[in-house]
Amino acid sequence: MECKELLKQISILYVEDEEAIRNLLQEVFEDEFYRFDVAEDGIEGLKKFQRGQYDIIITDIEMPRLGGLDLAEAIRKRSRQIPIVLLTAYSEKERLFRAIDIGVTKYLLKPFTPEKLLQVLCAIARERSGSRIDLGRGLVYDMGTKEIVGPSGCVRLTRKEANLLELLLRNSDRIVTLKEIEGTLWPDGSYSDDALRALVKRVRKKSYKELIKNFAALGYKIELPRAKD
Fold this sequence. Notes:
Helix content: 40-55%
Strand content: 15-25%
Number of domains: 2
Order of helices and strands: HEHEHEHEHEHEEEEHEHHEE
Mean pLDDT: 87
CATH architecture of the largest domain: 3-Layer(aba) Sandwich
Oligomer: single chain
CATH class of the largest domain: Alpha Beta
CATH superfamily of the largest domain: Response regulator
C-alpha cells in the first residue's frame, strides 16, 4: 500500500504550544490523514488522548503546564503500543535518555520541515501496517489500522477494544487475569465487571463469539488458530 493511502487511515494528535507552528502544520496536514487534531499544551493533549482514538501522538518537548516528556510518560501508563514522536530543539543526553526510558518511538530535532515529519510518520505507518495477525475464520487483525479484516470488509475497533484484543493476543498462551486487564485498560480506577463484560461482548460481535474465552472469576484467554504443517 502506498504511503499516502496508509496515512489516510491514521488519526494524529499533535501537541504544540506555539500557535503559529500548530496552525501551520494543521493546515498542511489536515488533508493528509484520516484525522489531524491539535492541542495547545500537554494538559489539553492528555485530555484529548483519553477521550479520543489516535494512532500516533506528536508532541513538542517544551510546553507550559505539562511538557512533552511528562505527557509521553502519562500516555505510556495507559498505552505501551501507541507511537509517540517527540519534537525537540535540544539534544542533551539527559533528555534523550529519559525519552528512551519512557518509550518514545522517535524524536525529531527542530527546526524540521513538514516533509521531514511526513517521512517519519510514513515510516511508522508502514511498520505498523505490516503487523497482521490471523484470528481464524477468515479474519485478520491489523494492528496498524486497528481493524478486523474479513471477507465482508473491515471493522474498526475503538481504542479500548483494540487495547483489550492486543493484550489478549500478546498473552495468547495463557489466561489474562482480571487484575491485569483492569490495570492495563482502566488505570484510572474506573473499572467495573459490567464495563469489562460489555467490552468483551463488543469485540466478540466485531469478530466472533468463540474468539475470546471466559474463565469465571479468573480472566479471559484468546486462542489463535494453529499453523498448518
